[in-house]
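Researcher: Here's my situation. A collaborator sent me these components and asked whether they could plausibly form a single complex. I don't have experimental data yet, so a predicted model of the whole assembly would be a useful starting point for our discussion.
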Amino acid sequence: MSAEAPPLPATPWRSNLSRLTRLPGVFALAAVLVAFLVGLLLVVAMGVPLGKAIPAFLSGAFGSGYAISASLNRSVVFALVGLGFILANRAGLTNVGGEGQIAIGGIVATAVALYGGVDGLPLGLPFILPMLAATLAGGVWGGIAGVLRARVGTNEVISTLLLSFIAVWLLYWCVQSEHLLRQPMTTSATLPESAEIPHSTQLPLLTGSYATPVTIGLPIMIVLAILVAVVLARSGLGFRLRAVGLNPVASARAGIRVASTIVLAMFIAGALGGLAGAMMLQGEQYTLKTGFSSGYGFDGLVVGLLARGSVSGVLSAALLFAFLRSGGIAMEMSAGVPTALVMVIQGLIVIMIAGAAYWLERREASA
Amino acid sequence: MTWEMLAVFIGSSLRLATPLLLGAVGELVSERAGVLNMSIEGMMLTAALAGAVGAWATGSPEIGLLAGLLAVLPVAALQAFLTNGLRANQIVTGLGINILVLGITTLAYREIFGARSRETIPGFDKWSPPVLGDMPVFGEAVFQQVWLVYAAIGLVLLTGFVLAHTALGVAIKACGENPRAVDKSGLSVTMIRSGAVMFTGFTAALGGVFLSIGDIHTFTEGMTNGAGYIAIVAVIFGNWRMGRTVIACLLFGAATALQFQLPAMGIEIPNALLIMAPYLLAFIAVAGLVGRQNAPPALTVPYWRA
């Protein structure tokens, strides 16, 4: 027994790269299939005929132009959070704060759209400025965790998780208080939510028709995905992220500024989350309410995990989860299967993928 | 504030701190052993449902408690296996378990009780100790509590003693400080850490059962609503020490009690600020703004025998 041997050989790139995410694609697919199978079994166990549940699911996910558009918009949110996750993960950082970064983005986008005096500006600025402000704010929110990690050594998992809770309750505060973003109380029945943002600040629809409401968020996300792929594969920043993730000490010796790389990685991850929040608000919900970000950050994290570090993985997982969610909601409404079923499926996928990642690595290392 | 109000405030702070205290005791043990047990939230939720179902089906809260303890076993065993058998990422698997449990408990609750049931479930009666319970003003308001509150205090004292003064306590803490040394001394890191996770399951189950049949005698979907996370936060804010963790739990319980107390006293403080307080305080603590943080060095690091 060589007890002093390092636990994992520090060999090739791939070996240490992103422990969570490096897995044969086949395995991710298998995990998804098994989880779906369990989902089907649960539907049967609940006594809902599959002949009713499956069509309800399919029509909710793909049944109409509207359903497909809604799913695509949702996938944009998941993809943005997932892209941020893999980028930070390349530097060895685990960003579990997507939920809070979305919430901060939503708050700032609402504030700018309603009270920033942007309504009436030319050139699309009314909807661009809130998005930019939200992106910046999300970046700062994520960047805080990066600064703490780089300067104090605080585990970014703990700090992003705490920042998420803080952001979610900040949002609650904003929509509860008339001094903040709550719409003016006209009657006692006025809901605790913001006023609706002006039409000019809402994201333009690609087709111009509310029957197929795909927003310009989709092309923006695709451009960003390409950008992230290029940055990761071909840029100096991509190299620095990778080096810091592999071995921060060696990177520092080689002259890489480790601290600023960590802060930048968390800033970008948070910025993508903030942008996702702005798109949810300006592209779909139009008013800020309690529970605005509920579940989206977690789904984005799962998408990032499933993606195994690749941008194409993020896009496929984001599409999968977006259609899964839409189908799940339809299944609850027309077949009476609670959407909680979707949570079961997601939980199983996360557990299987995370559980097997280390196991496979271990076998590889000892082989 | 009158004496009566103060008494009610202390009593409800203690009651609201109890599930946090129960969760945090177990979480502290497992974190000292090197495992950050995120799934404590899911464990509490599992026990809350199983406790409610057991008590409702049999009419006996004691059987509900037993059902809660049993139902947590597979959840805790899964977490122990993932973190110590497969050496999987502790946080990610914990979050995965929580979303899985939230899904399963919601499905099970609707299957058993129907979608919008508000059925009352038999729960534990309140009890007050002699002498203390007979005190004027404070006796009833502070000390008349479900016996689990007193059990929690006993558990805290016992666990604190074991951690500080026994060989087992040394072994547990060593697993979080220097697992390789533990391994070399001939003890099994995997066994000790798994045992610590199972212990968290036990205390989290008590906390979960307290929520459903100790405190409000009903179950609602996702009723833990972050209590498990707050228990983790209490351990972080408590700087991984028993005394400070207990104080953190009491502080967080008091913050919750204030949400109901302040409006009654005509003081306007945003509700959100009080709900946010535990997270904000813990964040200030981990940000290193109040002295050094002494997290166990091997926390969240899987141990490989090599």
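Model: Some features of this prediction you could bring to your collaborator: Residues 139 and 271 of chain A are 4 Å apart (CA to CA). Chain A touches chain B through 55 residues (CB under 8 Å).
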